[in-house]
Amino acid sequence: MKKVEAIIKPFKLDEVKERLAEIGVHGMTVTEVKGFGRTGGKKEVYRGSAYVVDFVPKVKLEIIVPDENVRQVVAAITEAARTGKIGDGKIFVSPIDEVIRIRTGETGEDAI
Predict the structure, then answer these.
(1) Which of 19, 46, 71, 106 is geometrically suited to a Cys-Cys bond with 110, CB 3.0 to 4.6 A?
(2) Are residues 68 and 81 in contact, defined by beta-carbon separation less than 8 angstroms?
(3) Domain holding 74: CATH number?
(4) pTM for the full predicted model
């Protein structure tokens, strides 16, 4: 099993969620996060004064999938989240040793 973490633009969340549902992914954790990458934030003007917003609002998705579904999930996120502009985000894939469903005690892929 793998954990796919994606940091995307907030307005792309619904599109990504729909695309994932189309390929059979129905469970995920979504967190509102802030961060910056190469751009180092963005400049804003407030009441005539320019200042730098260090952290840009983003959304982080966490999805646990069987190994054989990783490429399909990554492709779906990439296609749905891409705008072609700076700040589209990143996807991270990590191994997962075990999953346990608390309610039933199911383990492994049965618990996803």
Answers:
(1) 106
(2) no
(3) 3.30.70.120
(4) 0.85
